[in-house]
Write a structure and sequence with these properties.
This protein is an all-alpha fold. The protein is built from nine helices and no strands. It comes from Eutreptiella gymnastica. This is Major facilitator superfamily (MFS) profile domain-containing protein.
Length: 280
């Protein structure tokens, strides 16, 4: 007597494939509807907007700063060599490693995600806007080099804190079922910001470099505008609802949904296992 089960007929295979495709399409449609609903909420739109804009601002900063550092002093720069400029741009790495595990959690425990983000964004904006004012503090090359390193550390440390909190905002805006797609939309929007803002900032710096124009339209105009944008983002973040500090309240699945989920994703029936129709 032969044991085991016979392979299913061709018609049953086609039915199983059609059912799987239908479930897949329904799942994707449900995910898309969930993302569209999230984009109609204040939390969803603002969390993506803040994330996209800060990415463009920071990339604009690290695009313009190297140009500014190697520009001749007669044109408003510091006349640093390529090596010196590289040291300034990379000196924040060890400090980030030492500060991020402690500083960001401390601020969150003290102020919460929303208010700590506001404080961090305003501090970052002030740092960006006041960066060109270093030459007013010292004319000594060694002191100026040290000041440039400290400014770079300051901007990078705060940016990493702001960036991390943005991801918390986005995660707390949607359910886990659509979070991946929602973050994909956020990255797409942020890519556009990172394409447009650095191009504008570098073009603006090239336009003002070496030209004699009244303040604030001098060669530091790019820094001023980036600082204003960050301070404005900090103030706008106060409009975020307080619920952004809390995890998204996941809807409870009904018994019918759980049963359907089990039938759709449960293990295949084997010998001696009852199928949904009750046959063995």
């Amino acid at each position: 007597k032969e044991t085991g089960t016979k392979p299913p007929p061709e018609s049953r295979r086609r039915l199983s494939s059609t059912t799987s495709s239908t479930l897949f399409l329904k799942d994707k449609a449900s995910t898309l509807q969930g993302v569209l609903r999230a984009l109609q909420t204040q939390k969803g739109v603002m969390s993506i907007g803040l994330y996209a804009t800060i990415g463009g601002v920071f990339l604009s900063y690290i695009t313009v700063v190297p140009l500014w550092l190697v520009t001749d002093t007669a044109e408003g720069g510091y006349g640093l060599s390529i090596t010196e400029s590289g040291i300034v741009m990379s000196c924040s790495g060890p400090v980030l490693f030492l500060t991020q595990p402690f500083l960001a959690p401390l601020l969150v425990r003290w102020l919460g995600f929303r208010r700590s983000w506001t404080l961090e964004a305003v501090l970052m904006g002030l740092g960006l806007g006041l960066t060109p004012c270093l030459d007013l503090l010292t004319a000594d090359p060694s002191s100026a080099f040290l000041g440039l390193c400290l400014i770079q550390v300051y901007i990078n440390v705060i940016y990493q804190m702001v960036l991390g909190t943005c991801f918390i905002f986005m995660n707390n805006s949607v359910s886990t079922a659509i979070r991946g797609t929602f973050l994909g939309v956020a990255h797409a929007v942020a890519s556009t910001s990172r394409l447009v803002l650095p191009s504008l900032a570098s073009s603006l710096f090239a336009w003002t470099k070496g030209a004699v124009r009244p303040w604030p339209f001098d060669h530091h105009l790019s820094f001023y505008l980036l600082g204003v944008i960050m301070v404005a983002l900090g103030l706008v973040s106060l409009l975020l609802p307080p619920s952004i500090d809390d995890k998204y309240a996941e809807p409870e699945a009904t018994d019918a949904e759980d049963a359907a989920h089990g039938r759709a994703e449960g293990p295949p029936a084997g010998p001696g296992t009852a199928d949904p129709a009750g046959k063995v």
